[in-house]
Amino acid sequence: MERSQERDGGEGVAGREPGGGGLRLRREIGLWSAVSLIAGCMIGSGIFMSPQWVLVYIGSPGASLVVWAVCGLLAMMGALCYAELGALVPKSGGEYAYILQIFGSLPAFLVIYTFVLLVRPAAIAAVSLSFAEYAVAPFYPGCSSMPQAVLKGVAATCILLLMLVNCWSLRLATMLTNVCTVAKVFSLLVIMGGGAVVLGQGHGYTEAFLFAFHNTTQQARRIGMAFYQGLWSFDGWNNVNYVVEELKNPKQNLVWALMIAIPLVTSLHLLVNLSYLLVLSPSEILSSDAMAVSWGNQVLGAWAWLVPLAVTLSTFGSVNGTFFGGSRVCYVAAREGHMPQLLSMVHVHRLTPTPALIFTTAVALVLVLPGNFSTIVNFLSFLGWITYGTTIGCLLYLRIKKKNLPRPYKVPTIIPVIMLLASLYLVLAPIIDHPQIEFLYIFLFLLSGIPVYFLLVYFQCQPKWLQMPTLYLQLLLEFAPTVKNVD
């Protein structure tokens, strides 16, 4: 985990540092590709699977729509905070880069420790399993449960295929993201249009809106869990911050990409949920294993097969976007000395972070295990909001300690304050109201990073025998170290 030399250079897209010969990642992500990356990650399995669980936890249709609207607002406020941080710290890596710059090495290591070993691979595994479930469903008609070996095999194939795409070419990966994003937005427009037609024909379940807030829960834990499920569908709003060094004109395009993508996705999510509630009764929603499929069966008739296809494309694109951003964080952490040096290298010809992609793939494959979707989301969201809250704390710290720091973009102070309070609520409410042993396990896993940090990073107690395999792999697979691509 040796530290690489930090060398600043121009923005160039050639892949080599001007006058220095060092490799760097290419800036090939334009504004619309950035919008597609954000929207493509946000529109994944969540909008097809989470609405049921939001209604389960919150208790009423009206309150569920409020939860979705507030989730979109929180995502927008979080993105605005991240836009300011991205302009102040123009490096790839997202939360890791900001916490490292502002709070120092140990907190940043704890973030990357949980992110690389648990959060991002588990997200890839969860969404790829959702992809497998919908991709395999047409081959097992009438089966309430499909063979787990088949599901895991398809999920693993999805992960391996997307690893190859991302290793081969950044341009190919962004093109795939763009195509999948167009397909998934179109599918959501179909669901919205179907709901409008049902309402126009007078067949909608409008009775549910006469008592829209009846049975709304007042338990802090259940409200927090409802937000976990809703926010899972907005997860990915920060993905463009992971790839700032590959973004064209980042100081301008970062803000614009966030301002375009998140309101678009929020509007789509709200209208799609409204369509679900108009077509399906609350009891049908609560009893359905796949709410989008139930909607398709009632509205599309013989064309209902389009819904599983749309979900398959949506989840496939979401896995690709999650893969794309997650591997960059691993790459940046290795470049800073917090991960093995090999992971900071790129392919000398393709200029993609191939070692980091392979490592992310390996961990994700280990985590492709059968599990309860809502449980995975709840515990990943718990850990994620610890990280988000810490990152927002970075912004408030800079507001207090470095008031005169030049800021290309600045949000009103009230926005990060609200985000910090929301993060604290989402972390503490489920623990205080209904403690679960799994939350303790997650916290202990986070704390286990402290001795690992002091052993491997601070005291540099690294086995010497790793140097030869690293050199051998570097020569065999044509990997080389890089320099930072910051303005």
TrEMBL record:
Belongs to the amino acid-polyamine-organocation (APC) superfamily. The keyword Transport applies. It comes from Neomonachus schauinslandi (Hawaiian monk seal). It comes from the Eukaryota. This is b(0,+)-type amino acid transporter 1. The keyword 4Fe-4S does not apply. It is a multi-pass membrane protein. The chain crosses the membrane at residues 29-53, 65-85, 97-116, 153-173, 185-213, 254-279, 299-319, 354-373, 379-399, 411-432, 438-459. The gene is LOC110587449. Pfam families: AA_permease_2. It catalyses: L-cystine(out) + L-arginine(in) = L-cystine(in) + L-arginine(out); L-lysine(out) + L-arginine(in) = L-lysine(in) + L-arginine(out); L-cysteine(out) + L-arginine(in) = L-cysteine(in) + L-arginine(out); L-phenylalanine(out) + L-arginine(in) = L-phenylalanine(in) + L-arginine(out). One of its GO terms (molecular function) is L-amino acid transmembrane transporter activity. It is found in: Apical cell membrane. One of its GO terms (cellular component) is apical plasma membrane. InterPro entries: AA/rel_permease1, AminoAcid_Transporter. Keywords: Amino-acid transport, Cell membrane, Disulfide bond, Membrane, Phosphoprotein, Transmembrane, Transmembrane helix, Transport. Its main location: membrane.
